UniProtKB/TrEMBL annotation:
Residues 47-163 form the Response regulatory domain. GO terms for biological process: phosphorelay signal transduction system. PANTHER family: HISTIDINE KINASE (PTHR43395:SF8), SENSOR HISTIDINE KINASE CHEA (PTHR43395). Keywords: Phosphoprotein. This is Transcriptional regulator LuxR. It comes from Dorcoceras hygrometricum. It holds the Pfam family Response_reg. SUPFAM superfamilies: CheY-like. It comes from the Eukaryota. The modification 4-aspartylphosphate is found at D96.
Length: 178
């Protein structure tokens, strides 16, 4: 403060996310399963994982998503994302192509080959806007492809459309109990 006193400032979003992760871990361990809601009930907001080696892109995109009621997880490259995907499977992934250790193409290919991850919709956001890059992404099973810099309204529209299409596809796969 101006008078030299110290004021603690809490960034609540990571604290809230950490609390949700701890509850999921206890559920996985079978502890307090009766008292705690299921993981599906906890996820009132869709979880979007942002995978980009640029900390600026992760922070800016994360803030945009959080302002629009999405839960956000981030990873700095494909290897980091795979480690985090062992803990939680997102509802959607925003994925850069050019990253160290494992690029976006490699991660997308790995996800599409994994039964646990193959249905996660992927939107690539990249500075590589050439047709050959776009076609390679679609051949791997990527749902949408956006160039950088993206328009916030366009990103949010694409996310909304992809999540709705994914939800419709899941409903169509469910057996009819009516």
């Amino acid at each position: 403060m101006g008078d030299g006193s110290v004021l603690v400032i809490l960034d609540l979003a990571p604290l809230v996310r950490h609390g949700v992760v701890r509850r999921e871990q206890r559920l996985a361990e079978g502890l307090n399963a009766v008292e705690l809601p299921t993981i599906e009930e906890q996820r009132a907001r869709p979880l979007v994982m942002v995978v980009d080696d640029s900390i600026t892109m992760r922070k800016v995109t994360g803030r945009v998503l959080e302002r629009h009621e999405y839960e956000v997880a981030t990873a700095k490259d494909g290897v980091d994302a795979l480690e985090k995907l062992h803990e939680r499977v997102p509802d959607l992934m925003l994925l850069d192509i050019e990253m160290p250790r494992m690029d976006g193409y490699e991660l997308a290919a790995h996800m599409k080959g994994d039964p646990r991850l193959r249905d996660v919709p992927i939107i690539m956001i990249t500075s590589r806007t050439g047709e050959k890059h776009r076609q390679r992404a679609f051949d791997l099973g990527v749902d949408r492809y956006l160039g950088k810099p993206y328009q916030e309204s366009e990103l949010l529209a694409q996310i909304g459309e992809v999540l709705e299409q994914h939800a419709e596809a899941q409903r169509a796969r469910e057996p009819d109990h009516g």
